[in-house]
């Protein structure tokens, strides 16, 4: 697997939407964990519009 460098210009670019099959399911933030890119989940959405 080739390594990739992702440059983030500001704190706002770390905030992400989590989508499954195109449906918005939550919000999170990109974080570095042991030199790897990860996602810290801030909230999950609930309701009938999410993935079933």
From TrEMBL:
<feature type="domain" description="Flagellar motor switch protein FliN-like C-terminal">
    <location>
        <begin position="5"/>
        <end position="45"/>
    </location>
</feature>
<dbReference type="InterPro" id="IPR036429">
    <property type="entry name" value="SpoA-like_sf"/>
</dbReference>
<dbReference type="InterPro" id="IPR001543">
    <property type="entry name" value="FliN-like_C"/>
</dbReference>
<dbReference type="Pfam" id="PF01052">
    <property type="entry name" value="FliMN_C"/>
</dbReference>
<protein>
    <submittedName>
        <fullName>YscQ/HrcQ family type III secretion apparatus protein</fullName>
    </submittedName>
</protein>
């Amino acid at each position: 697997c080739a390594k990739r460098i992702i440059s983030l210009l500001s704190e706002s670019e770390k905030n992400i939407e989590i989508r499954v099959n195109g449906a918005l399911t939550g919000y999170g933030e990109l974080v570095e964990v042991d030199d790897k890119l990860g996602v810290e989940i801030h909230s999950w959405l609930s309701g009938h519009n999410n993935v079933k």
